[in-house]
Amino acid sequence: MKSNIPSRAIHVTVLAFLLASLLLTGAPARVLAGPAAAPLYTAVQASDTAGSLITNPNTSRTVAVSPTGIIYVAYHGPSGIRVARSLDRGATFQPSVQITVSNQIVEVAVDSNGVVYVAYVDAPGVIISRSTNNGQTFSAPAIAAAIGSTNVHIATDPPYVYLVPQDGANLLVNSANGVGAFSINSTGLGGQAFADVHVDPASGDVFVIADDPALKYTVSTNHGATFGAVVNLAGNIFYSTTAASFSTAGRFVYVSGQTTQAYQINLDTSAITSLTFGNVDTFQGRSLAADPCGNVLDSYTTGGQVHYRASQDLAATFAGAVNTGASQNQSVAINPSNYDIVVAYQDAAGGVIRVSVYSGELLNCTPAPIPAALPATGFAPGQVTMLPVQPAASAYSNTDLTLEIPSLGLKMPIVGVPVTGGNWDVSWLSNQAGWLQGTAFPSHAGNSVLTSHVWNASNQPGPFINLGNLRWGDKIIIRAFGAEYTYEVRSVRTIAPNNINSALKHEEAAWLTLLTCKSYNDATGQYDKRLIVRAVLVDVK
After folding, report:
1. DSSP state of 469
2. DSSP 293-358
3. Where are the beta strands (DSSP E) in 1-124?
4. CA–CA distance from 49 to each of 41, 75, 77, 82 (Å)?
5. Which strands, in side-by-side order, build the sheet including 63-65?
6. 531 vs 541: CA distance, rounded Å
């Protein structure tokens, strides 16, 4: 399923993957994600089965985006519940995966580790399925709770998974990443018309917000085991949906539904502020999204058309409305890797789910500290170095990516190396390549920095022992999610260990920097230099 953008090469060069990245000066900043709102991809077909449906956007979030930018769209129809995914920012969608043959309203969510959750209601109750391999396969549907409901919302805070049925009377809680039993815990709200759940990732506090139509909420400070007193608010919303923003600026929930009435709820003070959102002329035609940057999205249907408005200041002001297509049902999400706006909607012609992606309208506020020096990627030659047990804080993350350098006969997995204690600690890489988190994700736009050892702790040559033999035009290949990204070498040079700016040079297009140590100094027991190879993306297939 192709988008209306003709060239895949263009798709790649405009990608803006900003996961765990920042301005290369290392200074914290709050910056615009782009110059102006622009349709990146429009009306891309996500579904591949007849009669596909998105139903009631206020009761089911049907689009979610992983921390690494994978877009997931869940839908239902005669072919059951299915999930389609996009690995290229919404340009195309992979064949869908069937979760169940049941035709039920469905919600999809992705946790901070990239685990995908799908939840729905079917006899005998609330059902959940999960994927731990980026949506390639899903677990067999399992009963979370044998309780009646119509719809269910999901919130995650690994290892916790929270499910709230539509009436909000109970919260279903699992503390094992969705595996095994869920407890059924009373919220104290009783039966409401619509309820939603959000979790503050910093504190772990769980909030359940509901309407009947009077607004109210309650909070749990022990991972949903028990809840405090219900807070009744001076506001009414019919057919409510919500979105939450948790940051140093405060903890806020945004709630709206039918017509234009909306509210901002300060979860710390219980203050409620009246807002005006876009007009919804159907009962359940609104979808909301928010993030820690202060971005708030209001997506709504009016006159048979889907619109959205974007705010960068916690809904104090909004940009003009953008029409995304003819439909009554839609769902909106923020791509946390590049701050795209992702709108999934059911084509008005019927039976087709489409996705439109817009860039440049949201704030990027996720700069992370960059270390002052490049990592040490080699051990002392001539001796075996005994390594301590790798600390949990320094654990590497699996990326499902592979690095290949044909001219050197190299092929190795890529793992993510976090910044811990102000440094990238690559001591335990062994024969793997390490992606330095804070640089662009490999295969996406920007400068992706990969490192590997020149000499291993086992007193054997490391994978990058011959990195300096690369020459202009040599091929470097990244295999990612079924695609092959080919780079060509453009430079090979030696730099100082603290020359962070050369290694992490900012790039708009997709570049790859390979990094290792050079020139071991017996007197200091350190490598005096770093070798960097720079390569540019030339082909994707």
Report:
1. G
2. TS-EEEEEEETTEEEEEEESSTTSS-PPPEEEEE-S-EEEEE-TTT--EEEEEE-TTSB-EEEEEE
3. 31-32, 38-45, 63-65, 71-75, 81-86, 97-100, 106-110, 116-122
4. 21, 10, 8, 9
5. 63-65, 71-75, 81-86, 97-100
6. 29
C-alpha to C-alpha distance for 104 and 120, rounded to whole angstroms: 7
Q: Which long-range contacts (CB under 8 A, 24 or more apart) does 127-134 make?
A: 127/100, 128/161, 128/163, 128/178, 128/182, 129/99, 129/100, 130/177, 130/178, 130/179, 131/83, 131/97, 133/400, 134/66, 134/70, 134/85, 134/400, 134/481
- Write b or e for each residue in 431-444: b if 16 or more Cβ atoms lie within 10 A of its Cβ, otherwise e: ebbbbbbbbbbbbb
Considering the entire predicted model, what is its pTM?
0.66
Name the CATH superfamily, with its identifier, for domain 8-364. Answer: YVTN repeat-like/Quinoprotein amine dehydrogenase (2.130.10.10)
In this structure, what is the dihedral angle of CA atoms 9, 10, 14, 20, given to the nearest 10 degrees? -20
- Cα dist. 192→107, 119, 212, 214, 524 in Å? 19, 20, 5, 9, 69
Instruction: Per-residue pLDDT tens, the chain, 541 aa: give them.
Output: 433 322 222 222 222 233 333 333 232 223 333 334 578 999 999 999 999 999 888 999 999 999 999 999 999 999 999 999 999 999 999 999 999 999 999 999 999 999 999 999 999 999 999 999 999 999 999 999 999 888 999 999 999 999 999 999 999 999 999 999 999 999 999 999 999 999 999 999 999 999 999 999 999 999 999 999 999 999 999 999 999 999 878 999 999 999 999 999 999 999 999 999 999 998 899 999 999 999 999 999 999 999 999 999 999 999 999 999 999 899 999 999 889 999 999 998 879 999 999 998 998 776 556 788 899 989 999 999 999 999 887 888 888 899 999 999 999 999 989 888 888 999 999 999 999 988 888 988 889 999 999 999 999 999 999 999 999 999 999 998 788 999 999 999 999 999 998 999 988 889 999 999 999 999 999 999 999 999 999 999 9
Q: What is the CA radius of gyration of the chain?
A: 24
CATH 2.40.260.10 maps onto the chain at: 392-540
CATH superfamily of 392-540: Sortase (2.40.260.10)
Name all contacts of 156-160 with Cβ < 8 Å and 24+ positions apart.
156/109, 156/110, 156/111, 156/112, 156/115, 156/117, 156/199, 157/111, 157/112, 157/199, 157/201, 157/204, 157/206, 157/223, 158/111, 158/112, 158/113, 158/115, 160/199, 160/204, 160/223, 160/224
Give span(s): CATH 2.130.10.10, the chain. Answer: 8-364
Largest interatomic CA distance in the chain = 76
Q: Per the structure block, which two tokens stand in for 42?
A: 């429009």
What are the residues whose beta carbons fall under 8 Å from the beta carbon of 25, sequence distance 6 or more? none
